[in-house]
């Protein structure tokens, strides 16, 4: 059991967490053309785009947990999707108490 918790702590440390200007979010719906409606943990509903560097590499669906970087202008309305968590990673975040639904 102690080995399992140690490996969980190591996994959490190696996991990408939001920086100071980034927030967690859950994808609510796809709007097409690489744009998504995302409900963010800070209480805002943002229209977020998938940047070109992620567009073909990462498939994002409704219900996925993502990290959002709000834009400098219209920061409460728009942002960029920076990272998508897998279901396994979301489970690790829940066990560590970082993500609560």
Overview of this protein structure:
A five-stranded mixed beta barrel has the order 1-2-3-5-4. Strand 2 and strand 3 form a beta hairpin. The mean pLDDT is 88. It is globular, with a radius of gyration of 14 Å. Helix 1 crosses helix 3. The protein contains three helices and five strands. It has 101 residues and is an alpha+beta fold. Helices cover 27% and strands 34% of the residues. It has one domain: OB fold (Dihydrolipoamide Acetyltransferase, E2P) (Beta Barrel).
Rg value: 14 Å
The number of distinct helices, counting runs of at least 4 residues, comes to 3
Instruction: Based on the coordinates given, report the CATH architecture.
Output: Beta Barrel
* Widest sheet: strand ordering: 1-2-3-5-4
Strand content: 25-35%
Number of E strands: 5
The CATH topology is OB fold (Dihydrolipoamide Acetyltransferase, E2P)
Give the integer mean of the pLDDT values.
88
Topology:
Elements: H1 2-14, E1 23-32, E2 35-40, E3 45-49, H2 52-55, E4 65-70, E5 78-84, H3 87-96
Parallel strand pairs: 3-5
Antiparallel strand pairs: 1-2, 1-4, 2-3, 4-5
Helix pairs in contact: 1-3
Protein name: Translation initiation factor 1A
Pfam families: eIF-1a
Family: Belongs to the eIF-1A family.
């Amino acid at each position: 059991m102690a080995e399992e918790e140690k490996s969980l702590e190591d996994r959490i440390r190696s996991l990408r967490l939001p920086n100071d200007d980034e927030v967690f979010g859950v994808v609510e719906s796809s709007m097409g053309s690489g744009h998504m409606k995302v409900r963010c943990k800070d209480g805002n509903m943002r229209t977020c785009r998938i940047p070109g560097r992620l567009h073909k590499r990462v498939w994002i669906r409704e219900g996925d947990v993502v990290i959002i970087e709000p834009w400098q202008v219209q920061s409460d309305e728009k942002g960029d999707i920076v990272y998508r968590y897998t279901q396994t990673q979301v489970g690790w975040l829940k066990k560590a108490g970082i993500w609560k639904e």
